[in-house]
Write a structure and sequence with these properties.
- The chain is an alpha+beta fold.
- Helix content is 47%, strand content 15%.
- The protein has helices at 2-21, 43-55, 60-68, 141-150, 152-173, 180-201, 216-223, 227-239, 261-268, 273-280, and strands at 36-38, 71-75, 82-83, 88-94, 97-99, 102-104, 109-110, 127-130, 134-140, 210-212, 255-257.
- The strands form three sheets. Strands 1-2-9-4-7 form a five-stranded antiparallel β-sheet. Strands 3-8-5-6 form a four-stranded antiparallel β-sheet, with helices on one face. The chain has a two-stranded antiparallel ribbon with strand order 10-11.
- Strand 5 and strand 6 (102-104) form a beta hairpin.
- Helix 2 (43-55) packs across helix 3 and helix 6 crosses helix 8.
- The longest helix has 22 residues, at 152-173.
- It is elongated and about 55 Å long.
């Protein structure tokens, strides 16, 4: 009898989700609609959504179902943090966001992925600021939950994302005794790597070697460093030709063009700049 009740509850849950998704238009993440635009689910958009979920290791039928409930969303750069909607999950394709003081790039998840608990109260929602133009894949939280309870691979995808977040947080923002330049380089390398992954999914994505958005103060606050310390680290990376000294079409204090990904990654792993220069010659 309990099994029948459970099956009935799932049917009700799915029916409610479908009715919600058939609303006239999907609600915006923010109260201000000017900062966010939902793209029409046309042929190109549908293919991008489907390809995105296939890239997560899901089968074609599951990817198709998730894509039917999803939207591509464009977020413009915002000037202050805002609480996320509790009704959606958004997977960042590319761009740079500031979430509760930490800097993240592509492949980050906006929203509470713990689908089987109550939605957190407004004062406990993540505060997000879009530091650059950002594109996301948005899916209603209820729809993702309904699909997950019927498809174990979706649960695995969610679990993997949670595990990746823990690993990335520890790697980027955990207790670290390495020098500030190594920590700055590690964060920049992470942002360019994730941006490159997003560029593989969406045609016309931002240059994967160009990080746009965070100021030196953003880096300092996120990493627990002084602004002058971050400025020196960036100056050293530029003087050793790992970052470009000038930018085109962007402010130098918000734009970071990577000239040498291999050496940037090496510095992020603790390599000495002078030794890297000697190895090149």
């Amino acid at each position: 009898m309990s099994g029948a009740n459970s099956h009935r509850e799932d049917q009700i849950d799915n029916a409610v989700t479908v009715r919600q998704l058939r609303a006239a238009r999907p609600p915006s993440t923010f109260e201000s609609p000017s900062s966010t635009s939902v793209e029409p689910r046309n042929g190109t958009g549908a293919r991008v959504l489907n390809h995105y979920y296939l890239q997560q290791g899901l089968t074609q039928d599951i990817a198709d179902e998730l894509a039917r409930f999803s939207f591509l969303v464009r977020h413009q750069r915002s000037t202050k943090p805002e609480p996320l909607s509790s009704q959606h999950i958004e997977f960042v394709l590319f761009g740079t966001v500031l979430v509760d003081g930490r800097i993240w790039g592509g492949n980050y998840t906006l929203g509470n992925l713990d689908l089987f608990t109550d939605v957190p109260s407004v004062n406990r929602l993540e505060q997000v600021q879009f530091l650059s133009a950002t594109r996301t894949v948005r899916i209603p939280r209820g729809a993702l939950r309904s699909i997950a309870v019927r498809n174990l691979p979706v649960v695995r995808m969610i679990h993997q994302r949670l595990m990746n977040y823990v690993q990335d947080f520890e790697n980027l923002y955990g207790t670290d005794v390495t020098k500030p330049i190594h920590r700055v380089a590690r964060l920049l390398d992470h942002l360019t790597y994730q941006q490159d992954r997003g560029a593989e999914i969406v045609i016309g994505a931002l240059d994967p070697n160009l990080v746009i958005g965070p100021t030196q103060r953003d880096f300092a606050n996120a990493l627990g460093l002084g602004v002058s310390t971050v400025e020196k680290a960036l100056r050293d990376l530029r003087s050793h030709k790992i970052l470009a000294e000038t930018t085109t079409g962007g402010r130098l204090n918000r734009t970071y063009r990577v000239l040498d990904n291999v050496r940037l990654r090496a510095v992020g792993c603790g390599a000495n700049l002078l030794k890297l220069d000697m190895d090149r010659t």
